[in-house]
Amino acid sequence: MASRIxxxxxxxxxxxxxxxxxxxxxxxxxxxxxxxDYAEVARRVSRESIDAGPASIxxxxxxxxxxxxxxxxxxxxxxxxxxxxxxxxxxxxxGLRNLYLKNDTMNPTNSFKDxxxxxxxxxxxxxxxxxxxxxxxxxxxNAVAAYAARAGMPAFVFIPSNLEEAKVSTTxxxxxxxxxxxxxxxxxxxxxxxxxxxxxxAFCNINVRPFYSEGSKTLTYETAEQLxxxxxxxxxxxxxxxxxxVKHNKAARELxxxxxxxxxxxxxxxxxxxxxxxxxxxxxxFQRGETHIVPVxxxxxxxxxxxxxxxxxxxxxQIARATGGVVDSVTEEEILEGIELLARTEGIxxxxxxxxxxxxxxxxxxxxxxxxxxxxxxYITGHGAKTAEVLAGRxxxxxxxxPTVRAFRDRFGERSQAxxxxxxxxxxxx
Length: 430
Ligand SMILES: *Cc1c(COP(=O)(O)O)cnc(C)c1O
Ligand SMILES: [Zn+2]
Prior knowledge:
There is one protein chain. By secondary structure, the chain is of the alpha/beta class. Among the domains are: 1-44; 84-110 and 214-391, Rossmann fold (3-Layer(aba) Sandwich), CATH 3.40.50. It is 37% helix and 14% strand. A six-stranded mixed beta sheet has the order 4-5-13-10-11-12, with helices on both faces. Strands 8-7-6-9 form a four-stranded parallel beta sheet. It has a three-stranded antiparallel beta sheet with strand order 2-1-3. A hairpin with a 5-residue loop joins strand 1 (5-10) and strand 2 (16-17). Helix 4 crosses helix 5, helix 9 (217-226) packs across helix 10 and helix 10 (243-257) crosses helix 12. The protein is globular and about 75 Å long. It binds pyridoxal-5'-phosphate and zinc ion.
């Protein structure tokens, strides 16, 4: 049988090399991407074959770089196939009738990173690695620790020492070796890039990055499938390294070229990026009309996307421009309001990265970017419990009352009358 997985190809100079655990081109240092034999992929994949697959990212196995033909199962915790929810209440506030939220908080470790790590660990285990590692802003460490435990492999996770408490404890429970670094993510990543040549480990986002990053595509495959095999008109995506943004572009292209999406659902979506103003090197380059990224020192509560020197930043700018999207940024206060707006209108609690996404969506909507009929998908990539501390002091609890009807009536009498009348329009659809 012909192999689906053909080679690694340099994004800059187009040189093709055999599949191997390496992520930069020897000739020009450009990043490497997995190239498939699409004739072979097309022979295997169809809407029906996908529909018959598991309710996880592995339903798109024919478009992932792990060769499952030998019957060895992937390392999975049921990641992906998360809900795509129509958002009528948030949509009404923003004047968007066809707004959808891809709720990736529902993944096994509550962030989108489970998609990429399932692919990376599955690839690494089949390709001779016995230890998994990563440089992380938090969510990646969390996912690596869980999937390594699942695979029965040791893990080394490298993290900045100032991470949110919840991200540390939800990672530590899986018992990886946690290497806390006095420094920010860019320092952590630099250290790991030196270590990668000295230890025989699979660093998810370094030497096995070409395979790891392919897992991101499933978010866009699912969005299209859940819309009835149509791509949305625009997607709003949070940007850290820009890795997933670039892969959503690839995913949309693949769906179109393979004929999995059809009609007016087979147009390239506009891809729009979201950053925190406290770490917005990509938004800055976009606004200046440049592709060169000037690194910054991150200072934001959106720690999971605080990468000051994003490796895929210039590709994000190019793709946003080519598809008609934009890259914008929001302030710390806007991020918190984004978290609260999403929670209040749709009952979804997201972490700061999701607050960035919702806030950029709201900012663009209020600035009149859309007419209102467009189908817009916003990727909500991580759960709010992971960064709950940022909300400290934002809601004040009333004093407790005595457990008597009288005490209840005294305090809540008027409010209970008002609550009896339904709010117009609330809960009528979706
Ligand atoms: C890692 C991460 C992202 C973005 O990742 P990229 O490095 O741009 O691929 C977005 N949201 C959350 C919650 C993340 O953990
Ligand atoms: Zn090259």
